C-alpha cells in the first residue's frame, strides 16, 4: 500500500470573519458588522494506490513533507509522525485515509470510548458590557448547554469599545464580566474563563483569586505560554485550577515539562499542533498523571480525540465561539461540507461523527463549481 | 456490532517446562532433564455478531469481565479497558478481533512504525559455570544476535548446582558470569543483566558497580519491585542504567511514579499486565519523557507494540530464554499454532507478524483432535 500523490483542491467560499488590527481574529462586533467576503479554501487529498483517498482542509503540505510521504505506506502513521517531526497536516490526512480505508470512524480505530460528550458554550470576547455576557450565558444555559466559558475582553478596550493592544489588559472589567455571569446563571452552572494569554503575572493573580471566589471550574491560558515560570507561581498562589498550555507546539514533549514543573492543574491540547497522533500521546501522558485534559475547540480534527478518551480525563466539549444573534451559524456546515462535525442531542451533549474517517462528506459539486 | 459470547476452547499439548520448588519456573537443568508431559491449554474466542471472532491464548475470563463484555461493541477497546480496570485478557481478545475484522495486523492499526526490530538473546539462568555462559553468548553472537542478556544465578546455588531460595543471592558468582561473557564476546557486543528481583540493595549496588565497569547496557530488575526506595538509591549510586519495573501492575499509572521518583533510567513494560492498550499508554509516557522503554519478551501479544513504536524508545527485541542445545525449540511453533511469532531475518532482526489481528493462525485440526 502506497501514497502516490498529495493533490490540492482550491476553490472559493464566503466568510464573514475578519482579521483584527492587533492580530486576534475573533471580534464579534467587527465580524457581525462585516459583509460576507470571498476567500480561497483548500482541501488536500492524500491519493493512494488502494483507490481510497484521505482528505483534510488546509493548505498544501510543504515540499519536504510531501516528498517524505510519497511512496510510503499510508498506514504507517507512527513512522511518518516521527519522520515528519509530528507534522499535523500529514497526520490528519493519514487518519482520514485510515478510517475511510477500514470504513470506520477514526475514534473507533483509536479504540472508542463514547459516542457523545457533555458540551459547553464559549462566548466571543468583547461582546459588550458585563450584562451582555450575562444575557448570553443565560441564553446558552436555556438552550441546554451544560457549562459556559467566558472570553471577556482581549485585544480590546472595554471602555472605548474598540481594538486595543494585547497588553495592558483590563482585569477589573474581566472580573466584572465573571461576576455578572455567575450572578445570572447561579451557583450550579459550571463556568470557565479563558483569557488567551493576555495577562502579566499580577493581573493573572488578581483575576485568578477573584474567579476562585466565584467558584470557576478552570482558568485557561491567563498568561503568555512561552514563559513557564509565572505559571508555576500562579498555580502555587491561586486555588482555581489553572489550565494550559494550548499553543505550545511539540506535543507531547512540551506538556511533560508543564506537568513536571507544576505549571498547570489541568492540561490542554488539540489536533492542530502535532496531529491526532501527537494529541493522543499527550492525552495518555495526562491520563498517566491523573490530570484532566481539555481540548481546544471542536472541528472534525478533534472529534475522534473526544470519542476515544475517557470522561475523567476529558469531560467537556468546546463548541466554538458564540455571541448573541450569531449562534445559528454553528448549526450550518460550510458550503463545501454536507454536515457539521458536532450536532447536539438536545440534552447538552454533542454527538461524535460516525461516518468513516474523520467523518466529513465533501460536496464535490460545490467544489467543481467554485474551483479557482 | 456486538460481542455475543466468549467461548473457551480447551485441549491438551505437551511441554517440557517444569515448576521449581522455589517458584521460579525456568531451570534449564531440570527442564532439559525432564520428560515431555501433557498439559491442558486454553484458547479464548471472542464471538461477535459480525461473523469475525478474536482469539487469545489463556484461561477463561473471570465472570465479571465476561459479563461486562457481552453486548458491548468490540471496537470500543478504550471504554472496555477503563471499565474492566485494564483487564489484559479482554484487551488482547479485542485487539485480535479488531485486526481480523479490519483485515490488518494490529501494529498497523496502532499506526505502524517498522516491520522488523533488532534482536537479542537472553540466557537461561543457572546454565552452569561462567564458562558455560561465555560459550553460549559466543554461540548466540555467531548466530547473528546483536546483543546478549544474562540471567546469571537465581533461585539457585551455583556451588551446589541445585535449587535454592531467592535470597541470599550469589552476587560474586553473578559478576563472574558477567566478566566471563564480556571477555569472550569483546567490547563491541551489547550486554545486559537481568536478575529478576533477587538482590537486596547492597548486593544490587555491588553488582551494578561491577557491570558498570564492564560497560553493560542495562541492569534489569535487580531488586524486588514492590519497594521503590532502594531503586531510587541504586539509580543515584550506579552508572549502569537501571531498567524496570517489569512486574508492577496498573499500567501506565504505576510507571508514572517510577519516572517521577527517578527510580529507573530505562522503563519496562509488556502486554501482560494491562493489555496492549495499557502498554501503548505506557510507551507514550516513556516517550514523552525521552526515556527508553524495554519490553519483556516476545510473544504474539508484544509484537504489535514493537511494530508500532519508534527505535529511540524501544530499540531491542527480547527473543525468549536460550540455553546450549535447546535453542532450536524457539524456531518451532506450539502444536496448535501454524507459525512462530518472531522469525529471524538472518541479519539480527526479527520480523513483525503481518497477518490480520495479532497474526497467529490456529491449527483447528489439532485442537479438534485434542479437545478435553
Automatic annotation (TrEMBL), chains A, B:
Upper classification of the organism: Bacteria, Pseudomonadati, Verrucomicrobiota, Opitutia, Puniceicoccales
Enzyme Commission number(s) of this protein: 5.5.1.27
Gene: gci_2
Group of enzyme by EC: isomerase
GO biological process, one term: carbohydrate catabolic process
Protein name: D-galactarolactone cycloisomerase
Cofactor(s), by name: Mg(2+)
Signal sequence region: none
Classification via InterPro entries: Enolase-like_C_sf (IPR036849), Enolase-like_N (IPR029017), Enolase_C-like (IPR029065), Mandelate_racemase_C (IPR013342), RHMD-like (IPR046945)
Mandelate racemase/muconate lactonizing enzyme C-terminal domain location: 130-241
SUPFAM superfamilies: Enolase C-terminal domain-like, Enolase N-terminal domain-like
SMART domains from the UniProt entry: MR_MLE (SM00922)
Keywords: Isomerase, Magnesium, Metal-binding
